[in-house]
């Protein structure tokens, strides 16, 4: 497994990271035994970047990660944690809270659940409209100084917010959706991140399964799967998006790789400052994703992929309207 550095000031991590959200929340039921086995398989393959959030399963995801690292693997991994999302006992979304006091409180609970004395990259999940980003980053800077966190990250913020945050303290990376179907960061956000020396951890690289090569139009989503409300999985949008996936499959098959591997490799090929996060929930899906690190896309391959899935070709917004309203990156 090759490595990449998260920005100018961030940690060195594996060229592919593992996102753990689906092991606890938002994609329907998951098998905890298989989840643990998948994390262990990732570690054995050299994956060092593990991404979680304190609100994934209301703490369950952090506890799962703690259990996975009980064998002494903590010192060889980089743990990235998102915080700030407010949820009720029914799992509903109540907004975001990233005041200095809330930030420090969230961290205290995460440290306890993870069973660690520090978190490697700590980031607000979304911009809190009631709290200036300078205040949140200022509190995070105090936590860096105290040794509780090593690096400060951000998630789903726009170029202006990136500049304001970086003026307070160095930012290691921006976690944001980036895939063949979600290329909005290319216009302003990615150039700004590069100007400021901020890396990118890209989530949704398979567009939540649309580019996996395993999706079928008649697939029934489980209760609790947030994709039931996602515009890209509705009606004609789904049909058009799966047609794009089929076009990508044609390119991938000529290359001798799977659709998912082509999609992951495309994101990775966009720059050494980008680390794709894959959300594999099983060892089989993980193995397929890991093989993408061995895929070399030539300029001709990139041109073929661009023709198959042109920028802006996706149908439907990447989140439902209420969630889109919280995205500073979309303003």
Please give a handful of descriptors for the protein shown:
alpha/beta, single chain, NAD(P)_OxRdtase_dom_sf, oxidoreductase, Aldo/keto reductase, NADP_OxRdtase_dom, 17% strand
General form? globular
Secondary-structure element string: EEEHEHEEEHEHEHEHEHHEHHH
Structural class: alpha/beta
Number of helices: 11
Q: For the largest beta sheet, what order do the strands appear in spatially? A: 3-4-5-8-9-10-11-12
Instruction: State the total count of DSSP E strands.
Output: 12
- % residues in beta strands: 15-25%
The domain count comes to 1
Mean pLDDT: 96
Helix fraction by DSSP (H/I, runs of at least 4)? 25-40%
Q: Give the name of the CATH architecture.
A: Alpha-Beta Barrel
CATH superfamily: NADP-dependent oxidoreductase domain
CATH topology name: TIM Barrel
CATH class placement: Alpha Beta
Rg value: 19 Å
Low-pLDDT regions: none
Q: Give the distance, in angstroms, between the N- and C-terminal Cα atoms.
A: 36 Å
């Amino acid at each position: 497994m090759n490595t990449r550095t998260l920005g100018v000031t961030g940690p060195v991590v594996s060229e592919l990271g593992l996102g753990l959200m689906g092991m606890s929340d938002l994609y329907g039921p998951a098998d905890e035994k298989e989840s643990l086995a998948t994390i262990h398989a990732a570690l054995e393959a050299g994956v060092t970047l593990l991404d979680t959030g304190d609100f994934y399963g209301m703490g369950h995801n952090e506890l799962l990660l703690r259990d996975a690292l009980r064998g002494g693997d903590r010192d060889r991994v980089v743990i990235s944690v998102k915080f700030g999302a407010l949820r009720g006992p029914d799992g509903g979304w109540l907004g975001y809270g990233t005041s200095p006091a809330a930030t420090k409180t969230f961290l205290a609970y995460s440290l306890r659940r993870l069973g660690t004395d520090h978190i490697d990259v700590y980031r607000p999940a979304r911009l809190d409209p009631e709290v200036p980003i300078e205040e949140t980053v200022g509190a995070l800077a105090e936590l860096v100084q105290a040794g509780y966190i090593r690096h400060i990250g951000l998630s789903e913020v726009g170029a202006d917010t990136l500049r304001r945050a970086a003026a307070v303290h160095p930012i290691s990376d921006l976690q944001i959706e980036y895939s063949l179907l979600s290329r909005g960061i290319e216009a302003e956000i990615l150039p700004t991140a590069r100007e400021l020396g901020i890396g990118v951890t890209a989530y949704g690289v398979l567009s939540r399964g649309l580019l996996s090569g395993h999706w079928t139009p008649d697939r029934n989503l489980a209760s609790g799967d947030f994709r039931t409300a996602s515009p890209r999985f509705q009606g004609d949008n789904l049909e058009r998006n799966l047609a794009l996936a089929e076009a990508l499959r044609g390119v991938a098959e000529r290359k001798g790789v799977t659709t998912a591997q082509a999609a992951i490799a495309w994101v990775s090929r966009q720059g050494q400052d980008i680390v794709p996060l894959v959300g594999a929930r099983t060892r089989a899906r993980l193995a397929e994703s890991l093989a993408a690190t061995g895929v070399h896309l030539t300029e001709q391959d990139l041109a073929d992929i661009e023709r198959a899935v042109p920028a802006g070709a996706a149908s439907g917004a990447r989140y439902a309207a209420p969630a889109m309203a919280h995205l500073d990156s979309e303003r």
